[in-house]
Specification:
The protein has 431 residues and is α/β, with parallel strands linked by helices. It folds into 2 domains: 163 residues, FAD/NAD(P)-binding domain; 225 residues, D-Amino Acid Oxidase, Chain A, domain 2 (2-Layer Sandwich), CATH 3.30.9.10. Helix content is 33%, strand content 25%. The protein is built from 14 helices and 21 strands. The chain binds flavin-adenine dinucleotide. The site of flavin-adenine dinucleotide has 42 residues, from helix 1, strand 2, helix 2, strand 15 and strand 19. Flavin-adenine dinucleotide (FAD) binds next to helix 1, strand 2, helix 2, strand 15 and strand 19. This is FAD dependent oxidoreductase domain-containing protein. GO terms for molecular function: oxidoreductase activity. Keywords: Oxidoreductase.
């Protein structure tokens, strides 16, 4: 990880997007000897990116897609509950309905969710080790903690009702240990009475400051020779069907390759290239209680309330919620207040002040209907690659995404990316 490998044919690669995906990709490309420019509207690590405010989970158990058989029956209940985990603003119905139908269809059968789980597994399997190595190299080893992750249930029956999810995990070599209340409390003394049963995911890890981590990786990348430009990619220069440059803030920047890693901004960029990315923003929220991080030794997912709590350097963070809203619509802080209520429910003995004492945040998960990222070459323009659409799993998936892109740009055959290419959206939903 230390020295740039200058053996490969050096080309100039522009990576658009300074979130976790863009930054890890820029770094990987630089370490493989390319001249790399990272072009981002927002400074790496800043609050505007989804990569700032996530839950920090590096969970090998995330092979379970969000869309599962029978999901369609639960959606109306979620939507009707004012304090539930899902909200569809009426104004966003028109832009979201097609995506939602695709989302439900992708998880409609066991065969489909098994295929998605197998496709997610490579990103998750050794993610904690990859992130530890990155954090170590960037001089922030303390930001990745490998202490396991806990999923808690009101009782054993609720755990058993999740049997398909756990069988997907078993089939994908995820290791866990089930626990009764006494063991749960030994691990997390503040855990509320509501939770009597749980599963400890042994190889789980977490990032203690997702924003700080991206900033540290970007600094390390700059130290290694990545050039950083603060600007907005506006259009692309294409010569004979191949990318030759990017225009940002009115300036031209020549390049041999371009990586589109702009999170939700990737949709607009791809449309200029002629590719259609069916991403929608699944907006998520967090509340962070400064000073309360000592109250929870490891991250916990409250399975019934559909949110996760993570001890971060800046406080105890409760993250979750899915909201569909029009682009640019103001955050609805009621969603964050729900998370604070859930936090109180999950850890009732912890001293937690009112909402005004918390830090709260909203961000855009760039999500595909089939719960898989978009990684691979553009179907329209040579030299352009996508590294986006990671939805709920962008942090955990970033290191392998970066490796895939670097191998593609090196001209290697990378058959593993077949499930993630943009072309899958043109083929339709084949099984
Ligand atoms: C509440 C919540 C909890 C989550 N929890 C987890 C978790 O526990 N584990 C996990 O793995 N994932 C989690 N995620 C998902 C994860 O945060 C995202 O998948 C990930 O951050 C996406 O990273 P990204 O780099 O693709 O996009 P972003 O972080 O959004 O970054 C995109 C960047 O591109 C830049 N950009 C966009 N357009 C342009 C342009 N035209 N020109 C220049 N720059 C541009 C933006 O400025 C931004 O810097 C969570 C998300 C949320 C919202």
């Amino acid at each position: 990880m230390d020295k740039p490998n200058t053996e490969c044919a050096a080309t100039h690669v522009v990576v658009v997007g300074g979130g976790i995906v863009g930054v890890t990709t820029a770094l990987e490309l630089r370490l493989r000897g390319h001249e790399v420019t990272l072009l981002s509207m927002d400074k790496p690590g800043s609050q505007e990116a989804a990569s700032y405010g996530n839950a920090g989970w590096l969970n090998p158990g995330s092979v379970v897609p969000l869309s599962m058989p029978g999901m369609w029956k639960k959606i109306p209940g979620y939507l009707l509950a004012s304090n539930g985990p899902l909200k569809l603003r009426p104004s966003a119905l028109l832009q979201s309905w097609q995506w939602l139908l695709g989302f439900v269809a992708c998880g409609a059968t066991q065969k489909r969710v098994r295929r998605i789980a197998r496709a997610l597994r490579p990103f998750l399997a050794d993610s904690a080790a990859r992130h530890s190595a990155l954090a170590e190299a960037a001089g922030v080893p303390e930001l990745i903690e490998k202490k396991g992750l806990l999923v808690v249930y009101p009782n054993k029956a609720a755990y058993e009702a999740d049997a398909l999810a756990w069988s997907l995990r078993r089939e994908n070599n995820v290791v866990w240990k089930t626990m009764e209340r006494a063991e749960l409390v030994a691990l997390c003394p503040e855990l509320g009475e509501r939770y009597q049963y749980g599963a400890f995911i042994v190889d789980g890890a977490h990032c203690r400051s997702p924003g700080g981590y991206v900033a540290a990786l970007a600094q390390y990348a700059e130290k290694k020779g990545v050039r950083y430009i603060s600007g907005c990619a506006e259009k692309f220069l294409i010569d004979g069907g191949k990318i030759s440059g990017v225009v940002y803030n009115g300036n031209k920047l020549a390049c041999d390759h371009l990586v589109i890693a702009g999170g939700m901004g990737s949709v607009e960029l791809a449309s200029q290239i002629g590719d259609k990315l069916p991403l929608v923003s699944e907006r998520g929220y967090h509340v962070e209680v400064p000073g309360a991080e000592g109250g929870l030794p490891i991250p916990v997912m409250m399975s019934d309330l559909k949110f996760g709590i993570t001890p971060m350097t800046g406080g105890l963070r409760a993250a979750g919620q899915v909201e569909f809203a029009l682009k640019g619509a103001a955050p609805d802080w009621r969603r964050a207040r729900i998370l604070l209520d859930c936090l109180r429910e999950g850890l009732p003995r912890l001293k937690i002040g009112g909402f005004s004492t918390t830090n709260h945040w909203m961000g855009n998960r760039p999500s595909t209907p089939d719960c898989l990222p978009v990684i691979g070459p553009s179907s329209k323009v040579g030299g352009v690659y996508y590294a986006t659409g990671h939805g709920h799993l962008g942090l955990v998936s970033a290191p392998l995404t970066a490796e895939f892109i670097a191998r593609l740009i090196a001209g290697d055959a990378v058959p593993e990316v077949a499930p993630y290419t943009v072309e899958r959206f043109c083929r339709g939903g084949k099984e």
